[in-house]
Amino acid sequence: MQQILIFLFKNKHFFLFLLLFLFAFIITISTRTYHGAQFWNSANTISGNFFQIQQTFGEYFQLKKDNEVLLQNNAALKKEVLRSKSSGINPAQLQFTSVTGVVIKNSYTLSHNYLTINVGSDQGVKQDLGVISDQGVVGIIDRVNSRFARVQSILNLKSKISVQIKNTNHLGILEWRGLDPRFAVVSDVPSLAKIAVNDTIVTSGNSLAFPKGLVVGVIKKFELDESQNYYSIQIELINDLTSINAVYVLTNLDAEAIKKLDPKDE
Amino acid sequence: MNNALPLYAIRFVLLVAAQILIFNHLNVVGYLNPFIYVIFILLYPIRANQEQFLLVSFFLGLVIDLFSDTGGIHAAASVTTAFLRPTLLKLIFGLAYDYMAIKFDFRETRRKLFYLGTLIFVHHFVIILLERFTFSQFFMSVWYAIMTSIVTLTSCLILLILFKYQS
After folding, report:
1. Contact (Cβ atoms closer than 8 angstroms) between residue A244 and residue A238
2. In this predicted model, what pLDDT tens digit does every residue of A53-70 receive, in sequence order?
3. Which is more confident, B76 or B69?
4. Are A255 and A143 in the same domain?
5. Residue A157 CB-half CA count within 13 A
6. What is the CATH number of the domain that holds B82?
7. 117-146 in B: which are within 8 Å (CB) of A?
8. Has residue B118 been placed in a domain?
9. Do A181 and B32 touch (CB under 8 A)?
10. Rg of chain A's alpha carbons, rounded to an integer?
């Protein structure tokens, strides 16, 4: 017993180091799991409020760019209104309601990127809802408290989103392999699909989070994978995730009804 | 050390603020962000109590983690760096370290750079391994750690020159 105590005391620095390292390691692991670590993320109240203050200052530097985006968006909406008057409204769009939020913290240089937005469960934001910006898909709500929510960006090694080739309706899975925030990968597109460089990739509407037909990106290059049955496609993302301010959290009004059909899926 | 406590407290707060507000958004060549807060660990007084040093480094990393959504990887990396620092000091500065007589003057520039570079690399390597959480693409991780270390070392040197650090 004494020997053990002496041994421990002699190496006390090492054991203190080991203890602290293990503690940090456990926090790291638990934040990687789905329901773990409610406290250690930027949607918690301390850092949420801090980033809120930072955002109130930072906003001014973005005003010009935001104005431009709003103008473009307005123009697009006007076009849409004109078109819907002539051809009727797309019913898929009516299936969703949205809540507008502002990004108060964004990251895109890590391998697991998250955004924090300033709307939470008080505004009706729930886990697993889809988040889009004016330009396209941003990610999926991952954690919520009463005033803030954390979005798992599509620039996250864990993110997988169902997409399709715009004209052929062949499905694929959008993934991100790290490093460059401009490019992503679409896998699992069957080799039967006829694709070409510069084809558009849109969301498939297969998941409950996003409506069908949101533009995600364009094909840059593609090749067959080892099995020769599926394409591995590199795409350039349309949405510039390094610069986002306003986002829309989408709630699928039909989610309950669709989930009831397929209870095992949950 | 006791008279220097306010100095280190201020340095702690300023470095954390600079890291979160400025350097986390720097994105050199698109995706490299320097982790300048390691200056705190590198310049912590050599005479200080080792347990206290480990605990302070851990806390520093934890604060950075809290604001960067990274779980506990900065805490793990900081505490590793702090743990390895005495060994490295002994290896690089040899006997001078034992006599607490390290003078950072011009003749020592190369050694000093080597000391900063090695510790920064250790810190970044731990961060990147824990962040990617895989040994696949090991060499890419090493390469990424080297690139980030170079960016951090450069930023640290600029900061140190700007604030005229004298030991």
Report:
1. no
2. 777 777 777 788 888 888
3. B76
4. yes
5. 12
6. 1.10.1760
7. 130-133
8. yes
9. no
10. 22
